Amino acid sequence: MALCEPDWLHYGRGVLDLAFAPDRAAGEPVYRQLERYLHDLVAARRLAPGERLPASRELATSLGLSRNTVNQAYQSLVDQGLLRAHVGQGTFVSSRSDTGSDRGGAGASPRALAWEGLLARRARAPITPRGFFAHPGPHRVEFDFRAGRVARSLLPVAAWKRASAQALDELPALAEATSPQGYAPLREAVARALLARGIVCAAQDVMIVDGAQQGLDLVARALVDPGDAVAIEQPGWFGAAAAFRASEAHLLGVPVDEQGLSTDGLARLLRTRRVKLLFTTPAVQSPTGVALSEARRRELLALADEYQLAIAEDDYDGELRYEGPAPPALKTHDRAGQVIYLGTFSKALFPGLRLGYVVAPRPLLARLALLRFAADVHGNALAQATVARLIESGALERHVRRVRKLYAQRRAALCEALRAHMPDGVAWKPPAGGNTIWLGLPAEADVAQVFAVAAAHGIALHAGAPFAFEGSDAAEDADRHLVLSFANLPRERADEGVARLADAVRRALPARKRRSR
Amino acid sequence: MALCEPDWLHYGRGVLDLAFAPDRAAGEPVYRQLERYLHDLVAARRLAPGERLPASRELATSLGLSRNTVNQAYQSLVDQGLLRAHVGQGTFVSSRSDTGSDRGGAGASPRALAWEGLLARRARAPITPRGFFAHPGPHRVEFDFRAGRVARSLLPVAAWKRASAQALDELPALAEATSPQGYAPLREAVARALLARGIVCAAQDVMIVDGAQQGLDLVARALVDPGDAVAIEQPGWFGAAAAFRASEAHLLGVPVDEQGLSTDGLARLLRTRRVKLLFTTPAVQSPTGVALSEARRRELLALADEYQLAIAEDDYDGELRYEGPAPPALKTHDRAGQVIYLGTFSKALFPGLRLGYVVAPRPLLARLALLRFAADVHGNALAQATVARLIESGALERHVRRVRKLYAQRRAALCEALRAHMPDGVAWKPPAGGNTIWLGLPAEADVAQVFAVAAAHGIALHAGAPFAFEGSDAAEDADRHLVLSFANLPRERADEGVARLADAVRRALPARKRRSR
Asked: Domain check: are B257 and B108 in the same one?
């Protein structure tokens, strides 16, 4: 899971610098202030000709203004010719030829190229997860429940520096282009380490990728033609949905219950549709935290065999378990070579690393390597060599043990605080692994209100909405969920943080529902 | 340019371990020996069920056997049921259910999934450059003319270690997920550095990518729908062809002459076809080394404006020039926002680094960032921070000056040696920049023979064939070219190396043509 930082949020919003803050004491209407602000951005070319502005609803939410204020500012700039509105497409900065200004002296200025019209179909698809940018966080984070992070207090900085120094000594050899399949010693180390997950494979069966996301993207590019059906758990990991959508897959949701992915639901789907690929997270279902039961695993593999279904198994938190050892990976029982196994180093080490691996049947792995050549040739050999050293020295394993112990404590503290403070109707289960809790709010809760009060309380967290794709049956349910990570919530802060969050939830409920459990 | 290493070659060949060497003294026919060798690979599962074997022609070439020998071995294994032959598709290792062996005790074994049948259209396209694996190199490299490398004697190991140590001190901050657009200080450093290429842009206009190849791939994914026409210089950089083919582009070649890309040729194309995008290397045409003339640059931009053509400018060796300062980038004159500018750190630093950048009009850059989120979320922040430090400290600029000086000497030495030793009819021009020479052999030369003798002489080099895509008008011409890099050919070794290469060329000519010029 890789939820992104403010810089990226700006990008998602259309590269708009969101530094606008209205001066409500100024006497000037806020829409005029916003109008002048946007005008200045265009004049300074920080908003470029042809650039699309955020939808007025989105901008209003993120700036804390009414939608009407934003609409008034936009309309006034359209009237002045600085913006253009296209029905059904949005509002754009006018190009120079639109406005007639800024023409050079030497003949007519060229027309600005209309990039929106040149975009490929897949680049117009809704790749950004649903509701990804809906809720701005607090100005100062006092309680950090955000997912996609690791415990900051346990970053393996010293071990990384040691391993990095060893890898740097190999720089002359690593400086040349290497294999799209990855640095051989790291592939060997991964193959050995995977024995602990029950997977027997050789270095040749392993491909190193720039994070499991790249593995998913390459799998999508290898297998998905536009319109091909891909089944995906719902709620489910939104990065997978993004990768498959970028290949123009037709996404089909498979329900998830307290045993994990519903094999009955999958069977119903397979009886009526040709499905090429299933994406699943059996070790720790993302985002619900449920482990797929043994019975379901057998059913799933039997279904895959019956329908010649390929399975992409994302074992992203397989090593971070809290209730006994993890069940072996689905790949362990994969006698027909139907399972593509994806793993990552981002959870155990740190997300900024962007290193993961794919274990796949060889005919497919060879294709993935060819596609990777076209995509980015190969990965950063120094980073790969550094991780190889970390595995070989045992430092990675020691680090994972420390992380698991810390997370187990923080998980217990968070669950206890939730039991103590949350009002009736709030539902969750302690996750089997990973570091997040999928928290269901009562149907009557106003989720935007929860985020607004939480932000005022200094609480940063993520919404559940992105974990259901547009049009998914699970969308309504996901909309009333929060994702709470305990990775950066120290035990001694859990009670206070959850009490504040519970207050935000309570205030977002109708008055009669506000009592604590 | 990133030509790859043996490990990757194996992958391209279908993961086949090419350690087979016939024992010609053994009395046993060679095809029997090969048959046993392949049988053992299958038995040991180093060749897996469903895996495709190399075409017999390809395997014969790489093993130095006759094609008939390979065919006999394949046929015998097909007769035994160990391999299957599919007309028009190739020869595959039989799956366990094909052979009936290896069935488990508990019920029927599942069928092996037929991956070849699941592949998406784009994964079946010929992504691998034409002739990429045609010529095996020498066992021991005595003279290294291979392209896609930098001078090994000048690797900036000490500077890299210093910058890396500084970046590592920032590890806690860099450990979290960052922006798909890249580490902000590096974007700022790139924006400042690009002033030297005549490009005025802000950090917000820059996106960091994992090598220019990823930039090309993202541009292809943003703009190219299956069947869209993309124009590309011919001969031209094969990585670009691979990226566009992976998006199912219809490639159209534009001829190149002594002034660079032919604008007349492009105009003819644009009059008859809707072309979405042109890929060009104006600073140093890859592979011919020609710089695009000033007149052509003006004509090109006028054509782009007239036909609303997007241009991808790969400025890959813009800073490595030998005859006066480089002309400013095409992007400099891009008043209509039509040019996507791509640059790389792999040439100045080292290819294993995989770091480059894209400067693009903002509406497009925002799409590229969204597509990158789906592709691999973002790049390795530590590598990006290290390069930022190298730029800020001035170390990168000092390094580039040293590299330029060394390359200028080696370029002169190589040209002098070519003049001294090459037979009549061999044609080349000193390149305006970069580190390769595009060497044309006489039409009568047997190129496979050149490689065979060169390998025997300890010479490693690359063929021209990959620089023309399948079906290109330039294919025949590219087939009789070699790419010679002087990056790793010390001045004092140039005469001997070229003398040996000239001998290889001479021996590949009909007897009457063998005299030196």
From this structure: no
